[in-house]
Amino acid sequence: MKWNKIGIIGAGTMGQAIAEMLAKQGLEVYLLEKTQQQLIAGFRTMELSLDKQIEKWALTQSEKKAILNRIHAAREVRDLIPCGLIIEAITEDLAAKQELFQQLKEFVSAETIVASNTSTFSITELAGLYLYPQQVIGLHFIFPVSTIQMVEVIRGLQTSDDTFTKIKQFVEQQLDHQAILVYDSAGFVTTRLINALINEAIHVLSEGVASAQDIDDAMRIGYQFRYGPLEMADRFGLDAVLNALERMFREYGDVKYRPAVLLRKMVRAGQLGTKSGVGFFRYDEDGDRI
Fold first, then answer.
1. Which 3 state secondary structure label does DSSP give 253?
2. Is the N or C terminus of the chain more exposed, i.e. has fewer CB atoms within 10 Å?
3. pLDDT averaged over the chain?
4. Which 8-state DSSP code applies to residue 287?
5. CB burial of residue 160 (10 Å; 0-12, 13-18, 19+)
6. pLDDT at site 1
7. DSSP string covering 91-137, please?
8. Residue 262 contacts by C-beta under 8 Å, 6 or more apart in sequence?
């Protein structure tokens, strides 16, 4: 089974990236945000992203135009009714996600699959708020979505075999990504492992063992990481890292997930990484290292 129309709820960093990637694959995307202002900002950021690719000779002007023409602005949830798959990519706030799933059950049919891009919340818990829990699944994309060709496919307790099979085929055949099967667990695989590494890197920095740059170089060069753990944290958003660690600490009770004191201090100071221009390193408006 192939879908031609995909709905995305949330035009933030992940929503934009997923929408752009899907449109590049020739799919029609319907993008919904809470306010018109946030939606406009999302489209503006996607256009800037495509312009940067043109500057690097990775894209042409005609390709940019075709991609943007496939991304449509949705005004309300009912505009997503024609979509066979809806991907939730809103902020990592449980109350907001619960409210959204309550809204979805008023409009979406029993045939529509609803996938959450959450990095830590329970798919089983979210599915419990939906009219058709067997149609709910996790689709955790890794940023940058366009270059990381792997997706965690998370089965909730009530996710049906049919839903899983359709999503696996979609990821592998339509998106040409590797699908990793994960059973519902706080942090899944990637968030659980990478945040533990980031947290330990912050402890190493706090103890004065090495500078931020040297810590990142050690992992980037020594283990062939695209980014070191501290720059990775900056790009995820230090507030997002803190929230993920706190949720996993509550869930597992393991001290390795207890957020480093320095991380808490930086978040309180508003040093959130690329989104604020300063974290463990400094960044320009385009998110490039200064």
1. coil
2. C
3. 94
4. S
5. middle
6. 67
7. -S-HHHHHHHHHHHHHH--TT-EEEE--SSS-HHHHHTTSS-GGGEE
8. 202, 205, 206
For residues 47 and 49, give the distance between their C-alpha atoms in angstroms, rounded to a whole number: 5
* pLDDT, mean of residues 74-97: 93
pLDDT at 143: 82
Tell me which residue has tokens 């590797």: 178
- pLDDT, residue 4, reads 93
Model pLDDT for residues 249-288, shown as the tens digit of each residue? 999 999 999 999 999 999 999 999 999 999 999 999 878 8
61-69 and 13-24 helices, crossing angle to 10°: 110
**172, 124 contact by CB (below 8 A):** no
List the end-to-end C-alpha distance of the chain, in Å, as a whole number: 46
DSSP states along 168-209: HHIIIIIS--EEEEEES-TTTTHHHHHHHHHHHHHHHHHTTS
How far apart, in whole angstroms, are the C-alpha atoms of residue 92 and residue 126?
12
In terms of Cα–Cα distance, which of 117, 114, 140, 139 is closest to 127?
114
Residue 240 has pLDDT above 90, yes or no: yes
Chain segment 118-148, per-residue pLDDT in tens = 999 999 999 988 889 999 999 999 988 988 9
* Domain architecture of the chain: domains with CATH: 5-183 (3.40.50.720), 190-268 (1.10.1040.50)
81: which DSSP letter? Answer: T
Question: Residue 27 burial by CB count (10 A; 0-12/13-18/19+): exposed, middle or buried?
Answer: buried
Instruction: Give the Cβ contact number of residue 117 at 10 Å.
Output: 23
pTM: 0.91
Report the phi/psi class of residue 20: left, alpha or beta, with left for phi > 0 and alpha for psi in -120 to 50.
alpha
